[in-house]
TrEMBL record:
Keywords: DNA-binding
GO MF term list: DNA binding
Domain HTH cro/C1-type residues, every copy: 18-72
Organism for this UniProt entry: Duganella flavida
Lineage: Bacteria, Pseudomonadati, Pseudomonadota, Betaproteobacteria, Burkholderiales
Name of the protein in question: Helix-turn-helix domain-containing protein
Amino acid sequence: MVTARQEGQFAKRIGKALAKQRIARNLTQEQVAAQLGVEQETISRFERGATLPPLLRLIDLAAIFNVPLDALVRAGSARSIDQAIDLAGALDTLSEEDRVWVLGWFTDMCAKLAAAADSKR
């Protein structure tokens, strides 16, 4: 069961993803609002995480930003599998040599963070 706190955190992560997509396309909140037929304040509330966009709005926003719907939803997810998919996408942009280096660094950082968390318990 999803708690109100989890839903709020999800809304904030989705909001950040929406703002990132909008800014990457040099669009204003007003321009996005006009395309959706809503007020600018609605877009602001989505981006701040004050309101979680309904699914049909997310579909429209994904179309405006020309990204798959799952990219927006994954951006809001705290599940490690969804985060791993995003990491894999970032790795795909690198050379094989750079991917190997990043993977080694990432693995080392995870081990250090896990050890630090264990020592706090």
